[in-house]
From TrEMBL:
<dbReference type="Pfam" id="PF00425">
    <property type="entry name" value="Chorismate_bind"/>
</dbReference>
<protein>
    <submittedName>
        <fullName>Aminodeoxychorismate synthase component I</fullName>
    </submittedName>
</protein>
<dbReference type="InterPro" id="IPR005801">
    <property type="entry name" value="ADC_synthase"/>
</dbReference>
<feature type="domain" description="Chorismate-utilising enzyme C-terminal">
    <location>
        <begin position="157"/>
        <end position="413"/>
    </location>
</feature>
<dbReference type="InterPro" id="IPR019999">
    <property type="entry name" value="Anth_synth_I-like"/>
</dbReference>
<dbReference type="InterPro" id="IPR015890">
    <property type="entry name" value="Chorismate_C"/>
</dbReference>
Length: 426
């Protein structure tokens, strides 16, 4: 592919590029919303139209994807891993239906790649100048979100409390010591403009791992704040989130909430437990003695919430392929609990809906060998053909958990999506 660089009005060109991309069956837009950390790599990137596609048939997905990636080792590759791939990694089973209809994994090699770098864009394509002209002269239109439904809860409050107490029984017996109990919110017969919803969601809740992903008639509209796993050279990085508090109404309130969160024994304990789990997962792919908790846990502030985030790194064992590294650490420990397999088995038992793409990961493999994947949380999943819309929220339960507080935390995590759709829970 050829490359060309242009200076543009970033906001105008980006809006046009996203609308222009909707004519294609595949599109992936990733943006950091100007959040910076030691491992940030891209400001924003748009991948459009597929020259090659990988779609899981729910059998030996990681092995087949390893072969697919090896064939395209010098190319960028964008896609997602569904949480339900856990069933291929461990002896687990998900019995609930799949109403959103996503595959267990989906990746594509783009024909067009647009990198947003400050006030410039870099276009990689067969004919970059034609792509630039097509977007520059594209007539962007405003679209409204006309969502007139209320969101249904898969769990009633009573059912959630019942599942909570069953999980607590397992914690008291020592079967697990932490578990992430999740619940689905959904709406049926929904007609909406996915790009308009994503644009609004990103305005309501700008996050470092914001994602718009289109695979034919299925959409991932994500305001995820959490990095699952990244590779920078020979370093692997995971940044699990555990610990959440609402934003204050004033700066003084915010500072008090931050101080309370970073000194909250329950929230810190949850975070430390997941750090230990992630460290254990990373040892499978690390050179001996290189796994380290670089930063733990620190409060990061987002538009809707404060979160406790830890950073764990290691040097990669180059005998491991990138896909094997992801398999060794998947799914994200922050979305399972500990011990990991036992927690996932109990989630299958007491949750009453399929997580699917939720709690999985979406991101990219770059042409230089690096990769970066988020954890799919704070995310709307939408099937335009079946008109089904879904999102999940969840929270970590430990021995000190309180059911009312955990239930309210789930609603807090749903607040940005409800605000985006201008609706409320039924």
């Amino acid at each position: 592919m050829a490359k060309a660089t242009y200076e543009v009005n970033r906001n105008i060109f980006q809006a046009k590029a996203l609308q222009w991309a909707q004519q294609f069956e595949q599109a992936c837009f990733l943006q950091s919303n100007d959040y910076k950390d030691d491992y940030a790599s891209i400001d924003a990137i748009l991948a459009v139209d597929a020259s090659e596609i990988f779609e899981s048939d729910s059998h030996t997905t990681f092995e087949k994807l390893t072969i697919f990636k090896a064939k395209h080792s010098s190319s960028w590759m964008f896609g997602f891993f569904s949480y339900d791939l856990k069933n291929e990694i461990e002896s687990l089973e998900t019995s609930f239906p799949n109403p959103v209809g996503f595959a267990d994994a989906y990746f594509f090699i783009p024909k067009v790649l647009i990198k947003f770098i400050g006030t410039c864009i870099e276009i990689e394509a067969e004919k970059p100048s034609q792509i630039y002209e097509s977007i520059a002269h594209y007539s962007a239109t405003d679209s409204i979100i006309d969502f007139k439904k209320k969101i249904k809860k898969r769990f009633s409050k009573e059912a959630y409390f019942n599942a909570f107490h069953r999980m607590m029984d397992h914690i008291k017996r020592g079967d697990i010591y932490e578990v992430n109990l999740c619940q689905e919110f959904y709406a049926e017969n929904v007609e909406l403009d996915p790009l308009a919803v994503y644009t609004r969601l990103n305005a309501v809740s700008p996050t470092p791992f914001s994602t718009f992903f289109k695979a034919n008639d299925k959409y991932i509209l994500s305001a995820s704040p959490e990095r699952f796993l990244a590779k920078r050279g020979d370093i692997l990085i995971s940044q699990p989130i555990k610990g959440t508090a609402a934003r204050g109404n004033t700066l003084h309130e915010d500072l008090e909430i931050i101080h309370a969160l970073e000194n909250n024994p329950k929230e810190i304990a949850e975070n430390v437990m997941i750090v230990d789990l992630v460290r254990n997962d990373l040892t499978r792919s690390a050179l001996p003695g290189t796994v380290a908790a670089e930063k733990r846990p620190q409060v990061h502030t987002f538009k809707q919430v404060h979160q406790l985030i830890s950073t764990i790194t290691c040097k990669i064992d180059h005998a491991k392929s990138d896909i094997q590294v992801i398999k060794d650490t998947f799914p994200a420990g922050s979305m399972t609990g500990a011990p990991k397999i036992s927690a996932m088995r109990l989630c299958d038992q007491y949750e009453i809906s399929r997580r699917g793409v939720y709690a999985g990961a979406v991101g990219y493999f770059s042409s230089n060998g690096d990769f970066d994947f988020n954890v799919i949380i704070r995310t709307i999943l939408y099937n335009k053909s079946s008109k089904y819309l879904s999102f999940h929220t969840g929270g970590a339960l430990t021995i000190e958990a309180d059911p009312e507080k955990e239930y309210n935390e789930c609603k807090l995590k749903a607040s940005a999506i409800l605000k985006t759709l201008n609706t409320e829970l039924e």
